[in-house]
Amino acid sequence: MTIELILMATKSNKAIKISQKHLLGIQDLSINDVNLILDESQKFIKLNQSKNKRLNVLNGKTQINLFFEPSTRTQSSFELAGKRLGADVMSMNMGNSAIKKGETLIDTAMTLNAMHPDIIVIRHQDSGACNLLSQKVNCAVLNAGDGRREHPTQALLDALTIINRKDKIQGLRIAICGDILHSRVARSNIYLLTMLGAEVNIVAPSNLMPKEIEKFGVNTFTDMKKGLKDCDIVMMLRLQNERMTSSFLSSNREYYEYYGLTPDKLDHAKQDAIIMHPGPMNRGIEIDTRLADDINKSVIKEQVELGVAVRMACLKIFCE
Amino acid sequence: MKKQYFINGNIIDPHNSINENGGLIVSEDGKIEAVGKKVNVNNLPTREKPIDLKGKYLIPGIVDMRVFVGEPGYEYKENFRTLSNAALSGGVTSVVTMPNTNPIIDNVSIVDFLKRRGRDKSKINIFPCASLTQNIEGTNMTEFGLLAKKGIIAFTDGVKTIQNTSLMSRIMNSAKDLDCLIMQHAEDYHLSKNGMINSGIIATKLGLSGIPDIAERIIIERDLTLLEKNKCRYHISQLSSAKSVEVIKERKNDIKFTCGVSVNNLSLNENDIGDFKTFLKLSPPLRKEEDREALVQGLKDKTIDVIVSDHKPEDEESKRLTFSQAATGASGIETLLSLSLELYHNGSVKLETIIQALTSNPAKILRINKGNLTIGNDADFCIIDLDKPWIVKKENLISKSKNTSIEDKKLQGKVTNTFVKGKELFKV
């Protein structure tokens, strides 16, 4: 498809509108919203593989990336996505900002708001920070991860990756394994994948299992082999040692023994099961390094690639 | 002061088992001269012009056992003057102030300062608490005996809990020897670490760390076990869960102690937190609807002795933050009675039980001669229009801080007049 065709296609979609002003979490989205974003993302995958990756749909728009937590892939992905759409992108390193001088999030929001941005992308260590920000600014707010609450674009790119590999999500059995307690990726994925009709298995030691998680309509397992049984997708999560304030686990090597993804555990999943990981990975802790790099099973690099497309779609949709 | 005659009201005074249509006579020196059905238009001297209450309710001034005042150290949140004005508008005439000020109320010299400020700036009766441990650090006991002699009526670390079991045991022994009242905020810190709201699906959904109900229960069970041996005057400041009510109901059969509940936990639940409402970040946290119902039942069957406002004024700046950074607590002294009356209007609890938990019960626990309409006592009382509908609005609050937990809530019943020592200090 040529760039012109993509442009036409993206324009023709304007009739369907997103129901939300901001992208704060998957839990706020309807199934129509999700389909709109995923359809839009598909169009950008091709663009990102072509020679000229530049569109001008966000020409003249200002995008501010506000990252209060360190991030490699999400921040660069959002930055690239904005630039490829022609937006003026400003990434702020909050380590050097006025926050360090005691400015509150609301004051930072007011300051940036006065510069008339069209979209703010925020990552913050506190759950609900993006909700607070969205109440104080006039532009759209995209959540790039808040505390342990939600990371909607990650879930959307995971869904897109699954659809590209398995053609559907409805009816698939998907295991999400590891540090569920501290994971915003897990929460967003649970909302999204159950919404799209998957059967979701949650695998974690009891100490890393959030309270009453089964009320979200998932099956819970403390035995990984049982949890992986006949799964189409095995999604591993990073052990978030930086969020653990006291002893949740005895040791990394014991964790690897029981909850690390190894070939023998993977054998319990379906033959054609694929492995996903939102990154960054702790090789040898939650995943065997050979499995992580196995091009026949692991789609981890593809997730990163599609992440840019999903973020382009989100920027475009929420900027309108 | 002229003698005042009130007639034609509904008088409720649980301390003297009065619940009848009648009136009240206040003497020239601000004392109660007569009360009840005997005070009516036929028994008054003809030259006097009585005040016709027209069926409104007249109750003893409310005794609020858990109030945070910002003085000293946090005057910008609340001082004695603003606190007493807020209290009067809610019919509260006596308050027990928490020691969590800056500096902490933990020594005799600061008590002198506090009493002077209270006397000069406050229009209501101030009963200060001192801390159980020095600088509320939970390690060394304060001088219970000397502090009590200076007028401290109870000891508590306020927002903090004594974690060390051996220290708690010694505190109880000292309190027993010196006949002091100790009040515990029940929370096991290891279980509640980083917790902000009730542990459960809401916490999981919002991505916040939870405070499980067992964090409260474990401290209660521990303290009651200690109390079996070291029998002192022991009070649990606030209950928040069904499990705690269950434990207390059972243990009250064999040990003597008392407990309270915040009006917030009686009327709200964790669902009210909605989309990160920091004004509902409370300690103990709001829990499930089943917990709220159990607390109401506990009040009804008198397992729970006292209702408190847990009035914790916080300025806007400490609440306009992310949930985890925001300060804990809600301003509530003005709405204590009206919010409690919700339980009467919806048929959950008898009016007399509610008034008892707000007046005579706290006074009895504290051993103060307040919260009653006994003849010869100070005429501290308030008049209530029981059915008056009104809406809580931040901008109408009198307290210096506007962090109400029930913004825009529709309430029924409002204090119209409040008297302290016979003087009308608040009038709608």
Question: What would your notes on this structure say?
Answer:
The complex is a heterodimer of chains A (320) and B (428). With 320 residues, chain A is α/β, with parallel strands linked by helices. In chain A, 40% of the residues lie in helices and 14% in strands. In chain A, the strands form two sheets. In chain A, strands 7-6-5-8-9 form a five-stranded parallel β-sheet. A four-stranded parallel β-sheet of chain A has the order 2-1-3-4, with helices on both faces. In chain A, helix 2 crosses helix 12, helix 3 (73-84) packs across helix 12 (300-319) and helix 6 crosses helix 12 (300-319). The two termini of chain A are 24 Å apart. Chain B is α/β, with parallel strands linked by helices and 428 residues long. Helices cover 29% and strands 24% of the residues of chain B. In chain B, strands 1, 2, 3, 4, 5, 16, 17 and 18 form an eight-stranded mixed β-sheet that branches. In chain B, strands 6-7-8-9-10-13-14-15 form an eight-stranded parallel β-sheet, sandwiched between helices. In chain B, strand 17 and strand 18 form a beta hairpin. The chains are: A alpha/beta (320), B alpha/beta (428).
SSE diagram, text form:
The complex is a heterodimer of chains A (320) and B (428).
Chain A: H1 3-12, H2 31-49, E1 62-67, H3 73-84, E2 88-93, H4 105-113, E3 119-124, H5 129-136, E4 140-146, H6 152-166, E5 173-177, H7 184-195, E6 199-203, E7 219-221, H8 224-228, E8 233-236, H9 252-259, H10 263-266, E9 274-276, H11 289-293, H12 300-319
Parallel strand pairs in A: 1-2, 1-3, 3-4, 5-6, 5-8, 6-7, 8-9
Chain B: E1 4-13, E2 18-26, E3 32-36, E4 51-52, E5 57-60, E6 62-67, H1 80-89, E7 92-97, H2 108-121, E8 125-130, H3 144-149, E9 154-156, H4 165-178, E10 181-184, H5 189-192, E11 197-198, H6 201-206, E12 210-211, H7 214-229, E13 233-239, H8 242-251, E14 258-262, H9 263-267, H10 289-300, E15 306-308, H11 336-345, H12 351-358, H13 360-366, E16 381-391, E17 410-420, E18 423-427
Parallel strand pairs in B: 1-4, 1-5, 6-7, 7-8, 8-9, 9-10, 10-13, 11-12, 13-14, 14-15
Antiparallel strand pairs in B: 1-2, 2-3, 5-16, 16-17, 17-18
Helix pairs in contact in B: 4-7, 7-8, 8-10
